[in-house]
User: Fold this.
Amino acid sequence: MLEVQSRTPLMSIDAVALDTETTGLDPQEARIVQLGAVRVRNGALLEEASFDELVDPGLPIPRIAIDVHRITDAHVRDAPAFGAAAPAFDRFCGSSVALGHNIGFDLAILQAEFERAGLAWTRPRSLDTLVLTRIVNPVLPNFDLDTIAAWLEIEIAGRHSALGDALATARVFLKLVPLLRGQGIRTLAEAETASRAFSDVEARHAEQGWVQPVREAHEAEAASAAMARVDCFPYRHRVREVMSAPPLTVAPDTTLRAAARLLVERGTSSAFVAPGAEGADWGIVTERDLMRALAAAAGDRETVGAIMSRPLETVADGAFVYQAIAHMTRRSFRHLGVRDAAGTVVGALASGDLLRQRAHDALVLGDEIAHAGSATELGAIWARLPAVVRSMLAEGVGAGEIAAVVAEELCALTARAAALAAEAMAAEGRGAPPSAYALLVLGSGGRGESLLVPDQDNALIYAHADAQGEVDRWFEELGVRLTQILDDVGVPFCSGGVMAKSPQWRRSAEDWAGTVRNWLARAEPKDLFYVDNFFDFRVVAGDPALGQELWEAAWRLAGSAPGFLRSLAAVATNVRPPIGLFGRIATDNGRVDLKRNALIALVSGARVLALRHGVAERATRARLQGVRPLEVVNLDDIDSLIRAHELILREILTQQLEDIEAGIPPSNKVALKRLSRHERTELKWALQQIDVMTGTVGDPQAFG
Assistant:
């Protein structure tokens, strides 16, 4: 079972609600007489996944305890001792988050019993429903389980039995999750941080010898850092770098013997079978297919067209290697075709090619997102991303490369949210999409430069509008649902409203073309805000041609609109590096906002240069590299700007990881006290490059 991640939404955590019935209340002296637990997964109580076991305490059960839980010596006479019952209980709980009411007592007595039995004890991450209730409703008359259950309208069956109380605790937790979210507490780490604020609870636990209800922040961070490191090669390289090209291609009428000879000559294990008829798709025949067929028939006249598999499973040449690995693993394939952006088969990928690049199974996100069955599953998968980022940073992977992986997963997440929304609409009788459409991810996601706290920046293009607006109403509902799913998962609504549910970001192709022309003609401040998001978009679902046609047209028009470009350049030139008169980095409460005070200038400036000089790239680094051969910008300046962009991305990512583990909502603000003297010096240099960018973009020579 995977180690739970700090960023996991509470609605998505894999948890076990547990309870113990005992001989007394002193955890060092009392013994367990009953263990009860039930699993909570993806926001649902799994009553069938439960643990219920009587335990022989090895001593008489006091009358005062019997009066509470009604378990007598006779009940436990044939029950196993704790040492015999513990392994099964431990396997049931695994590495799940432990939920309990006054859980500090249960953890303390479990620890004592494990140690008494000579068994290893590993403290789980845990949440106390008593403390969580105090967060959302501090004015309840008391916080016992009965009062809280009554407030939440939960019926308790089997009160003061271990399983009965565990079930009640699980139901309380699930009712508290949306209430906690209403107070801005979404993730496991944020719930832990909020719980630590109750010093009186911690003091009472310490006084009574109980375990603290939640682990300290440094314990949770250490546990996360102790996870197996990721083999970073699959996250750094694209399929085009490891594929075999050109692929071996044969016609459908090629005989088996001829195909076998070609495989031997080329030293490959498969051949792609070209389409043999109008509308037919590519096929594949493998070495194993040929061996079986030849052994069975061995006829010179039998052809590969008769034994091939169709259609050929493919992956994009620009996909990351880890995505190809995950696709192969999920479908149990040993071979994939590789297609370029135009859909042409340009290469072959075999499982043997990827053996040395195989990433740790626990952290390969791959196409898990693309096949998640619900928002809660998406939330659990998305929460694993910081662990991948942490490992990549530790391995020295470039921050730009890491941001590209994060963006790839954000795009996959957005596409899957749309698919889930469309599936729900179809199930409710809303039908299929009434028009061809393209779902766009804008801004940093489209550029391939996402960090760990991306806002939603998405839009919709549909091919045909109608006078009654029925098409738009269907896509409006799709936009509302998909953006809600993303918010549930942990990608919050865009504060600027740049989302497919908003009319201005959901238009027909014709309307979008007119809108872009208006932006370029007016170049008003609000238009520049829109452009900042729009010109970096990427199609993540639907018909790619709809989006590509608009993107290419927009770039052509922008490149020939000097007035618009000068206005757009002002976005970059208005940014001033946060460096004071005495050369110190200026902060607000000890932090500096590296997005507002640095990243915007670098990204916007690179976009202006690319638009002006026809460099059809989306990523900031690629745009700067694209203008290098044009000699319109000093080459040393380009190198400095690329290095500054990389350094700033790295500092933001590192800070966001620390904030996530600490249960602090991560942002783009970096705490200077975290940086060493050398790191501050490097950051100061990077911030000084903002003046280089503003000078470059503001230079009339840069515009020809």
About this structure: Residues 395 and 482 are 35 Å apart (CA to CA). The chain has four domains: 10-225, 233-351, 363-521+530-550, 572-703. The longest strand covers residues 44-54.
